[in-house]
Design a protein that fits this description.
By secondary structure, the chain is mainly α. The protein is 82% helix and 0% strand.
Length: 381
């Protein structure tokens, strides 16, 4: 060491350890802030869900219908208000046609299914008692245990709470006439929100840039880019997923009706629509249609096999034809990541709203990570 120089406080190895520790501390703090923000946002969404879900439905519908508004404006040279009114008129006519043609048989099958549900349950219980009495006896002994009974009651209460949080109609039904009236009012306000969203001119992300003067130009451009990406992901996902769900619902209803499954028309359409949350319709559909196929009067193992065949054919059409042609690779997410995202956002947002937005939100955060990695960490995207 040269004379007169001050020895360094830390060696090079010690500096590397300190910098690594600081980096880990910064990463931990960032992750904690993200988790805290998601938790606060989830509580906010859960508390105000009855107000937010009509806005969310109207906003998604507006994003889906925006290209049609642009087409009407360009082709027919209409004002935005006239194009919105014309589009409303077309959809009212289509809705009325669907109402008078499809709703009566669907409604009849729905009422018949509700009436048949106790018989289906009794048939299932009777089959178990006849063929597997040891399992029924074991279950009865366990339910007689106070601890097991308390756990079962807790699980039932949690399931009821989850369903009430997920579906506002169930909560409204439990709240009597006032709650049901509030739910009807929330549904009725959706067309009003939708009309004003359709009237809005310009892109939403264009209005963000001048309202962020406190950010540097580079950060401002990143924020606008991310907002634009999120809007495009939401629009592409729901537009494509809605088309796929309607086609799947029609195919399932046709297949179930052809093989003779009771209530196949209503079950097929409902299962198809529920697939707007990936895998939800298929899971619930299997849990309902397989027991129904086995226990209906002319059912059995053969009809269960036919039901599974219908599912396999429709899933093959969805995976090999519909999704590649309609959705393409909009999200780029692995199926396992999709399942985890659905459970994560459904839990974070306390209900079905989080499950619906799970894929767009996850794809958005993947986009944020790729942008940060490319721009701030100087790594390939």
């Amino acid at each position: 060491m040269a004379a007169g120089t001050t020895p360094p406080y830390f060696t090079a190895t010690q500096w590397r350890v300190i910098s690594t520790a600081l980096m880990l501390l910064a990463v931990g703090a960032t992750v904690s802030l993200v988790i805290l923000a998601i938790g606060v946002l989830g509580r906010f969404v859960g508390y105000f869900s009855s107000v937010l879900w009509p806005l969310a439905v109207a906003a998604v519908l507006a994003l889906i219908l925006r290209p049609l508004i642009f087409v009407l404006e360009r082709r027919l040279r209409l004002q935005r208000s006239a194009a919105a009114v014309l589009l409303y008129g077309v959809f009212v006519l289509l809705g009325a046609a669907a109402f008078f043609l499809l709703l009566p048989p669907l409604f009849d099958q729905l009422l018949d299914f509700i009436d048949y549900a106790p018989s289906l349950w009794a048939s299932g219980v009777g089959y178990l008692e006849q063929h597997y009495p040891q399992w029924v006896a074991l279950l009865q002994r366990q339910l007689a245990n106070p601890t097991v009974r308390q756990i079962a009651d807790t699980l039932l209460a949690e399931g009821k709470t989850m369903l009430e949080q997920a579906f506002p109609s169930l909560r409204a039904a439990g709240g009597g006439i006032i709650g049901l009236g509030a739910f009807v009012a929330h549904v009725a306000i959706i067309p009003v929100y939708l009309f004003f969203f359709l009237l809005a001119k310009g892109q939403a992300e264009e209005k963000i840039h001048p309202n962020l003067p406190f950010l540097s130009p580079g950060v401002r451009e990143d924020v606008v880019f991310l907002v634009r990406e999120f809007i495009s992901i939401v629009a592409a996902f729901f537009r494509g997923q809605l088309i796929i769900c309607l086609i799947m619902g029609g195919l399932l209803a046709l297949g179930f009706s052809l093989i003779g499954l009771k209530f196949g028309l209503i079950l097929g359409f409902v299962i198809g629509i529920l697939n707007i949350v990936p895998y939800l319709g298929t899971i619930l559909g299997l849990a309902i249609t397989l027991p129904l196929a086995f226990f209906q009067p002319d059912g059995g193992w053969r009809l269960m096999g036919l039901v599974l065949l219908v599912y396999l054919l429709v899933q093959a059409v969805e995976a090999w034809v519909l999704t590649p042609r309609i959705m393409g690779k909009q999200t780029g997410l692995h199926p396992v990541a999709i399942i985890v995202a659905i459970f994560f956002w459904g839990t974070a947002f306390h209900g079905v709203l989080g499950m619906l937005l799970a894929i767009p939100l996850t794809a958005f955060f993947v986009t944020v990570w790729r942008l940060a990695k490319r721009k701030y960490f100087h790594a390939p995207a």
